Amino acid sequence: MADFCRKHEAYIESEAGSGKDAGKLLSYHMAKLSWLQHERLVHLIVTMFTALFLTAFLILLHFMPGLPAALAVIILTVLLVFYFIHYFRLENTVQRWYIIAGELYEKSGAGRG
Questions:
Q1: Distance of CA 73 to the CA centre of its chain
Q2: How far, in Å, CA of 11 to CA of 25, rounded?
Q3: Domain spans in the chain, listed from the N-terminal domain onward
Q4: pLDDT tens digits, the chain, 113 residues: what are they?
Q5: Are 8 and 36 in contact (CB under 8 A)?
Q6: Strand residues in the chain grouped as ranges (E)
Q7: How far is CA 61 from CA 53, 55, 70, in A?
Q8: Helix, strand or coil for residue 30?
Q9: How far apart are CA 38 and CA 100, in angstroms?
Q10: CA count, 13 A, side-chain hemisphere, 27
Q11: CA-to-CA distance for 75 and 91, rounded, in angstroms?
Q12: Rounded to the nearest 10 degrees, how much is the dihedral formed by the CA atoms of 60, 65, 68, 71?
């Protein structure tokens, strides 16, 4: 996903710098932004369910201490940390792409009223 985002940003930057039609670039960018927003939503849902399962296993561990519940808590905690990191990166990328979209919108002349 990170490679996909880097390539897209590099493409938009190079095409915008070469004087390509900003309106067409904006349409292309908005399609990619929509895909990224969908990816972000899916990862938010998965992250929330992982946190829910972690909470359930923490409760289970409290009432029924044992190795299986402890292992599940450890695995889910590590998984949740990585989901948070990935979601954080997705969120920052979406915010950066909103800025790019705004710049392309201004360049296309659509922002002049």
A1: 25
A2: 10
A3: 23-107
A4: 889 889 999 999 898 888 788 889 999 999 999 999 999 999 999 999 999 999 999 999 999 999 999 999 999 999 999 999 999 999 999 999 999 999 999 888 765 65
A5: no
A6: none
A7: 12, 10, 6
A8: helix
A9: 18
A10: 4
A11: 24
A12: 90
- The tokens describing 9, both together, are 């940003």
Q: How far is CA 72 from CA 27, 49, 96, 106, in A?
A: 45, 14, 36, 50
Note whether 29 and 12 are within 8 A (CB): yes
Does residue 47 contact residue 80 with C-beta atoms inside 8 Å? yes
The DSSP call for residue 99 is H
* Residue partners of 100: CB distance under 8 A and separation at least 6: 9, 12, 29
What does the angle CA 2 – CA 31 – CA 98 come to, to the nearest 5 degrees? 65
Take residue 1 and report the two structure tokens written for it.
């996903």
